[in-house]
Design a protein that fits this description.
Layout: E1 2-11, E2 20-30, E3 34-38, H1 45-53, E4 60-65, E5 68-69, H2 76-79, E6 80-83, H3 96-104, H4 109-123, H5 140-153, E7 158-162, H6 170-182, E8 187-192, H7 195-198, E9 204-207
Parallel strand pairs: 3-8, 3-9, 6-7, 7-8
Antiparallel strand pairs: 1-2, 1-4, 4-5
Amino acid sequence: MSIICQNIFFAYANRKPNSVIFEDFSFEMNNNETKCLYGGTGSGKTTLFNLLFGELKTKKGNILIDNIPLQKEKTLFKKVAFLFQEPEKQFVFPSIQDEYKFLTLQKNNIAITQNIRELCDIFNVKIEFYFNRDIYELSLGELRLLQIIFSFSADTEYLILDEPADHLENAHRAIFFDLIKSTKNRGILILTKYPELYETVADTSIPINARYE
């Protein structure tokens, strides 16, 4: 069981001619490992995230989720939970209470509700504190914390996280790193520029090696 990128090629059509981001790029992540793909600003991390999310499509090559081509995968969001670099893209509803209800009224609602409670305990926050607020009232740090709680509560085989350490307070960042290291039997892919993530948290870390001009 794994997520595989095979020899993918991607370029932005609306940029200047030398706009190739990925050329013959490959990696594999199993569903029981934590892997970091790291690179600086403009290296292609968010582009890769959007390719895995399905918002962008490769020009060549394949992305496979448990050996099923991404474009044919009908249950992607039952298998993979995503954490966006820009927090406001994460939420279906502006109201935190509505977002909570949306997540906990799914078929596996008992497990998700319990997971949220346990994660709130880990981070020493109360989810009810946010129920009368919406995403436009919260700080980036609060939004990132809620993203982590909601993403990790999902009953999925994989987590794909785009710069998840951004905006977190130091205390929450340390707890978050411990959470990643203690998470078992899930594949966690982290796209990051931070050495403290790719040097200490991941089982393996590899440079993206994207081309960018």
